[in-house]
Amino acid sequence: MSHFRLALLLGMTVALGPLALDAYLPAFPDIAANLGVELGDVGLTLSAYVGALGLAQLVGGPLSDRYGRQIILLGGLLVFGVAAFMVARASTLDNMLLWRVIQGIGGAFCAVSVPAIVRDNTNGQEAARLFGLIGLIMFIAPAAAPSIGVLLLSMGDWHAIFLMLTGYAVFLGIVLKMLLFRRLPPHQPVTTPVSSLVTNYGRVLRHRTTMRFVGIQVLCFSAMLVFITHASFIYQQWFGLSNAHFSALFAANVGMMALLNLLNRRLLLTFSSTLLLRIGVLAQFAAMVALVICAWLAVPYWAVAACIVVAVGCMGAIIPNNMANALEYFPHLGGTASAMLGATQFTGAGIISALSATYAGDTLLPITLIMAICSLGAVMLAVGAPGAVTREAALER
């Protein structure tokens, strides 16, 4: 299978996550009014989904190594679709939280399969370029998701957004079965005892280089998720912008991600992915510092939005380079290493975003400070990350 076709199908799969996270953001005020809760409480449904999305990958990763990518990915789509349908029927916040957790479990089985499939078929710089191409394709989802949500809200109510997610899961399952798994080489399952699938996590945890990259992923993603959790508050409540204006600014974030992703793919032909990772993390931190200053000085919304666009946009270069480096050292345990990366990323980010929703209050400055602190931690890890010339030594650690 060509890299473009593989990236297209896997990009459609990865798009499931942004759709589940971003499509219902414009509906937060309507959901809060419908369920009779505060707007901040609706943000807990985001954290619940992300937390489950992280923890469940610890189960899905080893299972995909043992039983193959197809059964885990398609099973995840089934769970995701059923749960999305039940979210649409939720009449209380507690009921919605429960089904969002189950939806996150299904999404986790899908999410963990994509990096593992990439690692099955590529490695090194080639893997970084393929991750970048997947990212470029799937950027359509987060760019379009809020606009899709606004469109569905104009035609009905917030329930239609989750019915759309059910339909997409069904469509994606059919497409992957017909066009992806029939053309991939047969997966060679891990034949070791089930108990060793658990101890394999110890191998990943003891690998200091891999865990450094895992830490970078957690902190950078946390900074972005804190913004996503508070995006409705920042733009619609704090600055009083309309749904359409909110969607346009959100799409600008994704546009910047796509632009930097394209630039990163070009630069990978000349520079190592580790060097480009450092540059991306440092650029994100610089944008975060500027964002804190803007929040402190109470500048107009366009200045705050500009800083956010740059900070979030840097993820277009950070994620593909970091994932390629993190998975480089485990060619035969791609599912397990991918699960550790995804579980830590989403669980850590989910906890941080939930804490920010609980304790940040109703002002902009604390939110931006949390984002900047996460970015600073990523800088500290990225500066000491080993370059390509030290990988042989790193493999022996």
UniProtKB/TrEMBL annotation:
Membrane topology: Multi-pass membrane protein
Record-given protein name: Bcr/CflA family efflux transporter
Main localisation: membrane
Protein location: Cell inner membrane; Cell membrane
Keyword Acyltransferase attached: no
UniProt-listed PANTHER family: MAJOR FACILITATOR SUPERFAMILY MULTIDRUG TRANSPORTER MFSC
Stored InterPro entries: Efflux_drug-R_Bcr/CmlA (IPR004812), MFS (IPR011701), MFS_dom (IPR020846), MFS_trans_sf (IPR036259)
Ranges that cross the membrane: 46-64, 71-91, 97-118, 130-152, 158-180, 213-238, 244-263, 275-293, 299-319, 340-361, 367-389
Top-level taxon of origin: Bacteria
Keyword Transport assigned: yes
Domain Major facilitator superfamily (MFS) profile: 1-389
UniProt record similarity statement: Belongs to the major facilitator superfamily. Bcr/CmlA family.
First and last residue of the signal peptide: none
Pfam families referenced in this protein's UniProt entry, alphabetically: MFS_1
Record keywords: Cell inner membrane, Cell membrane, Membrane, Transmembrane, Transmembrane helix, Transport
